[in-house]
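Hey,

Quick one before I head out. I ran the complex with iron/sulfur cluster overnight. Inputs first:
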Amino acid sequence: MSRRTFIKITAVAGATVAASRLFSHPALGSVVYSPELPGGEGVITEKWVPTSCLNCDTRCATRVRVVNGRAVKVTGNPLSRVSEGENCARANVGLQVLYDPARITAPLKRTNPAKGRGIDPGWTEISWEQALSEVGDKLKTLREKGQPERLLLLSGLNTVSAEDIIRRFAGAYGTPNLVSADGLNNEADKAGEWMADGHYTQSAYDLERTNYILSFGASILESYKPLARSLRMWGKIRGERPNRAKVVVIDPRYSVTALRADQWVPINPGTDGALALAIAHAIISEGLYDVDFVNNRTSGFDEYKKLVLDYYDPDTVSGITGIPAETIRQIAREFAATGPAIAWRGRGATSWPNGSYTSYAIFCLNALVGSIDVPGGVIYQENPPYRPLPEPAEDDTAIKGRARPALDLRKTERFPAAEVVTNQVADSILKNNPYPVEMAIGFNSNFNMSAPGTGRWDAALEKIPYYVHAAPFISEMAEYADIFLPLTTFMEEWAYDHSPPGSGFAEVRIKQPVVEPLYNTRNNIDIIFNIAGRLGGTVEQSFAGIGDDAGGFVKYRTAVLAPWNKLLEQGVWVGPDYEYYKYDRIFKTPSGKFEFRSGNLEALLKEQGEEINSLTGLPYYREVQYLGDSSDYPLLLSTYQPLLNVENGSQNYPWAQEMFLVMHGAGWTNFVEINRRTAQKLKIKDGDTVWVESPFDRIKTKARVFEGIHPGVVSIAGGQGHRAYGEWAKGIGVNPNEIIGVDYDRLSGQAALFNTRIRVYKA
Ligand code: SF4
């Protein structure tokens, strides 16, 4: 039967066919690159496959339309309660991830021993057997030498199931050196919550029921996770309820979130902690706090009250933040009166030296107005009840290796509260501190692009004697690999997933292959099972009986949730409704209450031998130490993450490039945003080519004169400036991480991203 006369629809019908489209590329002219309905004569089969997205770590439940074996459309999964069947604009980019012509189709081996930027690795294709046997032999030798800690595992954006398997492998092999990208984004945020309530986690906010959002640098509509949930809830609370929630955004830059808010309050960069304490001052001095919650559910209030009343008067703080004292009081009154209210801290406020204390100061505002574990306040994310894994088998080598200090100096005097200090690893490799790295494996990581001080990472990767990179594409980091293992993309593989804290209730997504793997590629879970088998002994035993491969592992871990066929058919499992008011069990603090003076922090600092004084354990504001002298470098550099920055590392996607800077109506580029008055002073016009120079390096880009940026700050969107990947990413725009200096929040080890001074001048 011909295509014209018969269409067989196996699942949901009625979706539109993705049309092919012309894209204009500034350098390449026009290109056609879009999934289209397969043509030709013959029967058309169509199905919708439930799976999940991995273009950011929200990992939304999706459904993909597949026509004659070709994926052509992505939508949300209506059974997902987290995103309520919606997703963000990046979901469809998943099709271009799958069909990206820059994907690597078979394992590669380096033939050129020289490594460095711009050096051709001289790749040659090899078989999987050759690749995995070589990697297995290297791992075996290192372990036999009794040095398993000299293996470094680097993890970028992976599925939750892959993260679980990589973590298990690190433990069974015996290395403490599993390093994720969290230290570049989330750690100060987590440490702030830990000081107050003992949970070292990103906070969850009950957006659906809140009446007031006070955002400190949180990019709620572009990059804060779980993004699709925030977007959906924003629509609900701002457009679908009779009592529209109010949103106030504190940010030196007029972001998309600020654009959509009721009030934008520009602030002097790095002063959010002082503002939070001044808001507390106004709430306490005007008697607006929740007396019942403060008296019964918190400790340390008297010391906190004394601190804020003594030091953080809005009139004084106005001089620090640049925000009029009356505006500070107005925000404080509204925040206290319009409950339930949320004080939401984002990367813009916390990615600074002292970021943990800023995070803590902002978080305390929620307790002041009783917005803790109540509808519309801060809530506590339930984890999915996956079937537990058996204890891994271990031998002396693993026990001793894991006991060695970690390369990132976590939990040391340098970074006492840290769980991971991503950016420290490059320096530790270069200095053999505390020991040399003999081998590293990167799973979808790309730190010589995404971490500040990219040059250090290049030098570190060059120094590692044997580097293996696993990813679907050749990234900047992959260019240093001795062996490249090509991975499947997320539409071709098995996995289970869930989102970062946000919804409160648990939700699991099953990722199943939407199409057969297109090339000779493998899932990273399968790779680890294979390598564990080659290593034998306790490493192999640790992977026995948990499913044998990726599909089996997913089945094993989710067997307790629902029957397998139902999981595959629905694509999601949703846990019970969230339970509020769990005050008898949520606070993991010495007092068992919410702590305005942190007992957890005090105990940790005591353990590190630090002197304890009357201010220890209290949130406080300290003036930022900047990198660079203000007389030579009068401006500050800020970066932001636009919605169309695809977080799987690559930007080789025309759909994302075309709309990259929505606020500016610009694509296929990024540029330096500079305030009109600043530009006038520097005699820079819109569109001029300029140098942006820090004490560490300089980059050349175009100027965009923009009213929505603080006069003392310039801003560059992250995500461009690739020198690897395919033709739609390579050479487009600049990477601001090239010129950002290396600094940290001392407690959590979070990379300080915004305290680098720069100057801008015409090129
Ligand atoms: S929020 Fe993240 S996971 Fe969800 S659709 Fe967008 S890119 Fe994909």
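The longest strand covers residues 44-52.

Talk tomorrow,
K.
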